[in-house]
Specification:
Length: about 150
């Protein structure tokens, strides 16, 4: 999970920004969502696009999703944090050069936000294999390596 900055905006400020924001910052957020949202899980992509691009409020979507607004807000914040992370961008740029297993692990853990355990189960890999490949990807991302 990515760490939240100490001075993170309160959710009410973020939601107002999604609906009332103007200018360069909002345009950058829309561009980011347009270019990267396709690599999120289907549920996260729908949520991010509905709120950021469609202007819907989380409180309106929560009953449709069958969960509380609080849970949906957390999912949205996590998806936006993943979407804007340097690791997400790194995986998008370099995944085609990686071996199949590393690419699948990176897509599951970094792009779709699965836990290592959930990724291991979904990909039918051992937890050790997922941990190894995710560690390698994160290390490469932090060091800026392009090698497999």
């Amino acid at each position: 999970m990515l760490a939240q900055p100490h001075n993170a905006l309160r959710w009410s400020h973020l939601e107002q920004f999604f609906h009332n924001g103007r200018g360069e910052a909002r345009d950058r957020l829309h561009d980011l969502v347009r270019s990267r949202a396709g690599d999120l899980s289907a549920a996260d992509r729908s949520l991010v696009e509905a709120v950021v691009m469609g202007g819907q409020r989380v409180s309106e979507l929560a009953p449709l999703a069958g969960c509380s607004s609080r849970v949906l807000r957390r999912r949205l914040k996590d998806a936006l944090a993943r979407l804007s992370s340097p690791e997400f961008a790194y995986v998008l740029r370099h995944r085609s050069a990686w071996p199949l297993t590393r690419r699948r692990v990176a897509e599951a853990c970094v792009l779709r936000g699965l836990s290592q355990r959930a990724a291991a189960s979904e990909l039918r890999l051992s937890l050790y294999t997922v941990r190894f490949h995710q560690g390698a990807v994160l290390t490469m991302a932090r060091c800026g390596h392009t090698a497999a």
